[in-house]
Structure formats: C-alpha cells, structure tokens
Design brief:
10% of the residues lie in helices and 44% in strands. The chain has three helices and 22 strands. The protein is mainly beta and 353 residues long. The longest helix is centred in the N-terminal third of the chain and has 16 residues.
Length: 353
C-alpha cells in the first residue's frame, strides 16, 4: 500500500482555493489556485463547479507526491522545452509549437482521463491569411516564426513574412486558469490592406457533435441558442456576424487554392461562440472571440472527419502602420450545460482577460 496523504482545503469562492497536504512521513505541500488576472475567476461558474474544478486541479497537483521536490511556481506557465513549450496546468497537459512549428496546442491531453483532445495541426492554430485580393501561402503554420517565453509564463510568437506580405503578425498564448487559454493575435499593416482575415483553426480528436450559437430563429425556438451542425445543413457551415460579413465571406477568398471551400451560410451568430462535445468523456470544447474582433464562426457537420472549429478574425481594412488585435479564448469543460457555455462567453466578453 502507498503512503497515506491527508489533504485539507480552504476555499474563498469565487477567487481562490488553497490546500495543505501531509504525507505519512510528515512531508507537507501547500499551494493555492486563483485567477492570474483578477480576484475573480475568468469564467462564470457556480459554487459547485468552482469547487469541483479547483479540487480536481489540486488533486492532480497533489498526486505528484509530498516529497522534497517542489512543484513549479505556477502551473499556468508554459515551460521552454526546446523546440516546444510544454505545459501542465494540473487539469490539462501538452505542448505549444511541437517540433518548433506554429500549429497551436498539440498534444493537448485531459489530465483527469488521459483523453487526447487535439489532433494534427492542433488547437488554436493560425491557418489561412486572406484579404480582398490574396491568400498568403497555404497557411500561417507554413511561414517561418520565432517564439519566446515571457517572464509571466506566456509565449509570444512572431511570424517572418516575405516582403510581399502587406502585414506582420504576432500571437500571445497565455493560460487564464487551468482549463482556459487566452490568445491575442495582433497584425500591423506594412501597406494598405482591405478586408484582412486571420482564420484560426482548432482540430479535435473525437468530439463528434458540433454547435454554433446563433440568433433566435425557428430552429432555436425563436430565441438565441446552440444550433447543431448536422449533415443535412451541408458539409461546411459558417455563421456570419451580419450581412456585411456575408459579403466578405463570398468575395471569392474561399475559392483560392489550395483547398477551396463552399460554405453553407447559417443564421447570424448571437455571439462568436462555437462548441464541440464528446459524449463519451463528457468534455466540451468552447472556442470564442470578442464580438468586435470576429466576423464569422464555422465548423463542418459534427461527424465530418476534420472535427474542427474555426474563427474568422478581424475582416477589417488597415492603413499603413495601423495595428489591430483580436482576442480569442479556448475553454475546456466537463458536463457543461448550454447556459454555462453562454455564461463562459459572457464573462469573456465582459473583459476578464
């Protein structure tokens, strides 16, 4: 039988949980979990969900033992493990820039079950770069890039685009809590550019049921709600912000090689929020952006082989020297209700970065 570990907890909803563990040999370990950006957790949850999430995270940390070795000062920091940046938040583990390539998070593993969440080309991966006239390469993941670890544990990526590209791009990946990743993508115009789009992709392993959060239609009982992306609605489905966004989607950019796409237009989104569920594990993956930073969200039907979710970021004109930043968030939850999913978005949109 292994050593006995006695654990006591104190929590202060909704900001912090602390734990004190005592091993049978008298070794101790203490730590606390709290929002890194404010005294409020950066997602909306009930007291029960807060406690379950925090206790699950602390249990994963305590499972490492109560010996002399101390845990990292913050599980919310990436760790440079060349050429990649590893992470273990206690709830999720994996790597950013596997093999030194900018393909988002891959692997991405659920700490509680060991389930792999991401597949090839990763989660929160910058893919197509499009404007009114041009597609720049096959994707940002094919362009050279450099990455560095900030003192606060975030990773900054800068792409090296050819001079022919009329903009530069930088991304910052930063953990907000053990189950939530924030991404800021910033573009700066070298020359005037029209209707610039950064297409952000997430490819999942499993998760055969996909939803888009749309405005009230007869399909959602006349109220905003999650519309399932079924095969009957087409293979590739996109929900725009408004009719101006539809004109951008249909300006010819999606016929440019390689891999042209014919999008079926869904009702306008209620917020730029898409979700995939994995019934077997109970996990849900939420991908969202600030309403002002995203003009469309998209997905293939649930069981289509890509198992993907997409955000069409920006869609704006830029003058020389002008800079725009798009804010996106990845949230992974278990046994999540639709109301809780919407609350996650509302808290994000309210500004808890």
């Amino acid at each position: 039988m292994g050593d006995e570990i006695r654990v006591s907890y104190q929590y202060s909803y909704p900001s912090e949980i602390s734990a004190h563990a005592v091993g049978s040999a008298g070794a101790t370990k203490e730590f606390s979990i709290m929002s890194r950006h404010s005294k409020r957790l950066p997602f909306s949850c009930s007291r029960r969900v807060f406690l379950q999430t925090s206790l699950g995270t602390s249990a994963a940390l305590l499972a490492r033992g109560t010996g002399a070795a101390e845990p990292p000062s913050s599980g919310l920091s990436f760790v440079h493990d060349p050429p990649q940046f590893a992470f273990d938040t206690g709830a999720l583990r994996g790597a950013l820039r596997q093999d030194g390539l900018s393909r988002g998070l891959m692997p991405l593993t659920d700490g509680a079950t060991g389930k792999q969440i991401a597949r090839a080309y990763g989660v929160f991966s910058h893919y197509r770069l499009l404007d009114a006239e041009t597609r720049y390469g096959d994707g940002a993941w094919s362009w050279p890039s450099q990455a560095r670890l900030r003192d606060d544990g975030a990773v900054v990526i800068d792409w090296t685009f050819e001079e022919a590209c009329p903009f530069t791009m930088q991304a910052v990946y930063e953990w907000a809590d053990p189950l939530t990743l924030d991404l800021r993508t910033t573009v700066t115009a070298r020359r005037q550019v029209q209707r610039l789009e950064v297409f952000l992709a997430s490819y999942l392993d499993g998760f055969p049921v996909s939803f888009v959060y749309v405005q009230g239609t007869p399909l959602t009982g006349g109220r905003p709600g999650f519309l399932e992306a079924t095969r009957q609605r087409g293979v590739w489905q996109m929900s725009p912000r408004d009719e101006a966004a539809v004109r951008v989607i249909q300006d010819g950019r999606w016929q440019r090689l390689p891999h042209p796409v014919e999008w079926q237009i869904l009702p306008h989104f209620a917020a730029p929020l898409v979700m995939r569920r994995d019934p077997e594990s109970g996990l849900a993956v939420l991908v969202m952006a600030r309403a002002e930073d995203c003009f469309a969200v998209s997905t293939p039907y649930g069981e289509e082989s890509h198992r993907s979710l997409y955000l069409s970021l920006l869609g704006c004109d830029l003058d020389v020297g002008q800079t725009r930043t798009a804010h996106a968030r990845l949230a992974i939850r278990r046994d999540l209700s639709e109301r809780q999913a919407i609350e996650c978005y509302e808290t994000f949109q309210a500004g808890s970065l």
